[in-house]
Design goal:
Beta Polymerase, domain 2; alpha+beta; single chain; Cytochrome-c3 Hydrogenase, chain B; 17 helices
Length: 529
Amino acid sequence: MTVGDLQRLIYELRQELGEGLGAEERHGNEFRLEVRRDLFPAACRHLSHQGRAALVNMVGTDEREIDGCYRLYYTFSPEDADLFITLISGIPPEDPAFPSVTPVVPAAHWYEREVQDLLGLAAQGHPDPRPLVLHRQWPRSLYPLRKDFDGTVQPELTGEHFPFRQVEGDGVCQVPVGPIHAGIIEPGHFRFSVVGEAIINLEAQLFYTHRGVEKRCEGMPYHRALLLAERTCGACSFSHSTAFCQAVEKLAGVVVPERAGYLRAMLLELERLYNHIGDIGNICAGVGLAFGTSHGGRLKERLMALNQRVAGNRFLRGVNVTGGVGRDLDDDTRRVVLDTVAEVRRDFREVLDILLDNSAFRDRLETTGVLSTQVARDLGVVGPAARASGIDRDTRRDHPHAAYDRLSVRVPVYTQGDVMARFRVRADEVIISLDMVEELLNTLPAGPVRIGVGSIPPYRAALGYTESPRGEDIHWVMSGPGDTVFRCRIRSASYCNWPAVPMTVPGNIVPDFPLINKSFELCYSCTDR
């Protein structure tokens, strides 16, 4: 999208909405527009349909102490443009409601339910107004993200249960799975409606262990909030810490040193590598292929040991700081990384050839758990799951950050949308990430790795974003008085992708579900932050 395309889009939006569209402002690649709340659905429909823009984030805030209002921010990203367009509207406390956007932009469905739960802003006309984050046991009059909520209070639960939808018909029965599972994983409840082994419907209830990370960040200085941000997810720690740091750096108007950008990109790719290779091993576990599971675990461990050598932490924590990185790379460690990358490349190619030469393995993956391109687009699916369903989006290329603007980011895209396509996207991206790590280290510039971040004026907002192993992570940060966080909204890739999983299951059999679920490899933790 060119500047002219953007101007034309805004002009058309003004023609449609008239005086309902207010002031506009631009900060870097973020463009913001005030919209009257009753016109939210029309404005969002225009950006989504005419502007070919995907909804990538939605934030609700309690800004009553600033100007007496709650506020909603819907952020869209147009195709082929390093640009984010945010529609903003105030919601008066005496009428805490807004027209739901979900009927015209389905990707808004979880965001709006979450705003109802945590802020008490009613999404009028939402097709599924059931609680999402706060289960039915939570008292309906307590809204944790309101500024006057006391986070130390332990509320008295009501004992109500989640209203799963009932599927009726001859031979239909329900199979509950979870929330306690056999493996060492977090809790999630899945309710299958089946006839024999054939699945005709699946409903999922998550958010059993909501940690209140966003609430805890309020009032924290940035360096302390960073510790929470990078613990949003164990497997994507560095992606989350990078996104948070970039949001704060944009607020401060600083650009990190070039060497720091290279090191961030290298560590992001190391994070992708150990996750993707581990995920490929997990897919093999889903079909009972011990060869692939064992070698996936072996190579993942090799890479996590490398993380320990490079970062001092197997999960790449404690490296990012606002203004750059707090740990440099010496020549000996650089050679160790290059040697390990070469070894992993040889081993992975050999394992991959054996897997893809196994006809029984291919048969289990092909045509299983299909996610269509339209459903993926409607639900705002991101990452490998989106690229396996024909959606050509990758934040590294579309919104360059760190050192990705110095690299040619290759983006593998498949159209089948099945488990095999998701497997192949990850396999391709392993090779691409290995290439990137080598290129980054062979062109690593000299210089400092950190710059000072000065004082940040209060009540400004900015986006930080990365392409994590599971897809685009976004951190929306609003500054508060005294260099503290006023509001931090963490939108993980798993948050976008979980709603798509039940859409891929009908038509398959019950034993296919573990394989389908592993092919998405979603995280409970960074969804339930």
